[in-house]
Amino acid sequence: MSAAAPLAVREAGGETSEAEATRRERRARWCADYRPRPGVPDEMIGPDGAIRPAWDRFLDRLADLAEDEVSARFAAAARHIHNSGMAYRVYGEAAERDWPLGVLPLLIEGAEWAEIAAGVAQRASLMETVLADLYGEAHLVAAGLIPAAAVAASPEFLRPLHGVRQPGGGRQLHLYAADLSRGPDGRWRVLADRTQAPSGTGYALENRMVLARALPEVHGALAVRPLAPFFQAFRDGLAAAAERAEPRIALLTSGPYGDTYVEQAVLARYLGFALVEGDDLTVQDGRLFIRTVAGLKRADVLWRRVDGDFVDPLSLNPASRLGVPGLVEALQAGACVMGNMPGAGLVEGGWLASCLPALAEHLFGEPLRLPGLPTWWCGDPAQRDAVLARADTLTLRPASAPAQGAFTTRAFGLRDPEETGRLFAILRDRPGDLVAQEPVQLSTAPAWDGPGLVPRPFVLRVFAAATPGGWAVMPGGFCRVSEQPDVQPVAMGTGVRAADVWVLADAPADPAAAPMPRLEQAPVRRVSGLLPSRAADNLFWLGRYLERAEAMVRLTICLLSGAGAVPLSEADEGTARRLRGLLHAWGAVPTVVGPAAALAAHALSGREAWGSARTHVLAARRNAASLRERLSVEMWRSLSALLDVLDRPGGTGSEAQWLDRAERALGLGAALSGLAQENMNRAGGWPFVDIGRRIERAINTCRFAGLFAAEAATADDLGLLLQLADSRISYGARYLLGVALSPVRDMVLLDPYNPRSVAFQVERLAEHFAGLPALRQDGLPEPQTRLVRSLTGEIAGTEAAALTPDVAAAWEERLWAIAEAVETRYFPGGSEAARPERLVALA
Fold first, then answer.
1. Where is this region: Disordered (predicted)?
2. pLDDT grade for 295, boundaries at 50, 70 and 90
């Protein structure tokens, strides 16, 4: 059926139902203006002008939903992306952007996908074979099938890796990707090979989760093939390459400011890999270890997501701050497996594309199943002459550089004489530095544009994983779609959206026909894996910043509502002055004078105030961004919601409006605390979150007590202290005669049963320290344990009547010393954090 053809409204039995007529009318309206570009293949409209069967079924199912329901589903998907922190970063930008997922998938029938998968697997095998030869005996160069000059000139040829053979079969590649589009004849062809550190698998996984959640009826009815088996096969392939039966696998990331860090965190969480940065790793005695709070733990497999020459500043790029000194030494010793090997980016260069057809025939005895772009390496005189003969119709790019995104080319026949002269000079003096390719016109796929569908250029990235049984191809992929009809998508950024890729099976899978594998022999564990020192550091400060934000919110509530029913503006002047002075000392307000509403705006949402609640929540979010693989979606959603409340411009709101905002922020902070308390595994990183919160809470309470529980404290002072310590209800239930100095001091400082008291915090710290791993084997307590035991005993032996502000100030100093001892012992900058513990170093 043509997209522009009138829709039939009759069935064999006569008139269609009203619902059927409505559905058909929706389809017709959506497709009314859909016109593929002349001569450009399209995914929805076939060469015969009819809608392809897959899209016909998809549109039928989508049209079953009312238009407002479709809009609501798409809006819910966008909210889910924002609230769950699914984001990316454009290179050079400091801020993250919400992931731009399109609302329509790319549909591919199962039979067509089988051809794509076979072609991608063939190219993956070809790349593996070529890499093994180039970093080995170089027979292909000797046979003249690969130009030696191109290999030697490539910056991706890493000589320290020559001759290095990995354990588990010596594999160079564990993950391969190919960027595809349809050619003018409608056949799929490869625009670029990705062997360096292919990105997109995590985003493909997230795309599927979001779209299947938004359109569950459509997803289920079309029998979309699942992605989970591919990821399991990839994990099994990495594990099989290691020497140990239960290897420890880590994902090497460039850090939270990397373009695709969120994707890497998704993959680490989904696959159960340790997410590590270069500073988390060290090489000792030729072996690779992860710095953890329990000492050094051996890493058997390292899946890198940084460029190959950046993995080791000693043997490769000395400017790198992302790698691990000595890592090449560990690879040369065969002490760990790297996926993909450094130097694998060598075969991304355009020069190899000109050799691939002949290499496929020579190595496999068959042609390429997925052809690439016609390519000429200008270092070959015959090919250079062919390029010069077609100078006005070809494009040029550096021979060693991979295509960026879909491709990066520049027209050879430039109108700029100076640029044209420069290119001719390169062709004359250094022709091997360039390759020429035919210009590319990307094929199109449907995109949702307001009320209907429009054709847009796209690039499909397909992934293949090395497994013990061969190459496994993901039944789906990572698709980038331009928002403009004549713009080629190069990289994720402005004007480009992602699309989920649905590979359709012939029929829905029968769960009974393919039961989940039984793992009776799998060992039982009750630990959550290792905790890198860097992650513990971020968890610790996440807790501290959240507690600081809560303290600032409580101070603001007290500023606006007072110690009880009477606002501070009408209560004791000294109490109000001390409260405003504390807000100023903590960097939340610029001055102690002025309307309470204006001061509250600074304290809650001040952008220039280093001590505002917003500033502390932003800091907590930065720490959380480095912990995405360890935090639940619910926790990230609550943190985002808290920041949204505090980040909203306040304008000239009234005291009541600011009080409402503060109380909402307090509720969201309590939700975050509850999620950490109830959802985080006690054997994982939760102790460090709780240690951070309890140290910060105890420090704040000591400061509050020093200000509002002095000998001359008024009833307003004491009431305010109880409110800041969230202890008014507990105090009222215990004492019926009103506030008094000694009982209030006891409640907020000494009472071990009050969860907000200093005594309670210190006891919990002692319990945490007792449960954390120790490096010393002599039975003596470590510094943080010794300090907290001393403070616990002193608090237990103190009477409320003897509690002066000086005592509270001394305890505050002791708590700061405990925090410093924790940092010194467990975190990357500490003197003990990098020390190998021989008893566990090989575990």
1. 1-24
2. confident
Query: 556 and 658 in contact (C-beta within 8 Å)?
Result: yes
Single-letter residue type at 311: V
Q: What is the DSSP string of 180-200?
A: EEE-TTS-EEEEEEE-SS---
Q: Say how far apart CA 108 and CA 53 lie, in whole Å.
A: 10
User: Is the separation of the CB atoms in 478 and 201 below 8 Å?
Assistant: yes
Q: Give the span between the Cα atoms of 467 and 171, in whole angstroms.
A: 11
Using alpha carbons only, give the angle 758, 764, 769 rounded to the nearest 5 degrees: 125
For range 103-115, the mean pLDDT: 96
Q: Which of 302, 326, 322 is nearest to 310 (CA)?
A: 322
Give the gyration radius of the chain's Cα atoms: 32
Residues 6+ apart with CB under 8 A from 494: 90
Instruction: Specify the DSSP element, H or E, that contains 302.
Output: strand 301-304
82: number of Cβ within 10 Å: 15
- Mark residue 779 as left, alpha or beta (left: phi above 0; alpha: psi -120 to 50; beta: remaining): left
In this predicted structure, the answer to whether residue 625 has a pLDDT above a threshold of 90 is no
> What pairs with residue 729 in β-bridges?
none
d(CA 442, CA 450): 23
pLDDT tens digits for range 38-65: 999 999 999 999 999 999 999 999 999 9
The C-alpha angle with vertex 47 and arms to 46 and 49, in degrees rounded to 5, equals: 70
**What would the two tokens of residue 784 be?**
């943080």
Q: What are the extents of the domains in the chain?
A: 10-90, 374-437, 535-680, 683-827
Q: What is the arithmetic mean of pLDDT over 581-606?
A: 93
- Confidence tier at 530 by pLDDT (50, 70, 90): confident
Q: CA 486 to CA 493: how far, in whole Å? A: 16
What is the DSSP-derived secondary structure letter of residue 224?
B
Q: What is the pLDDT of residue 572?
A: 61
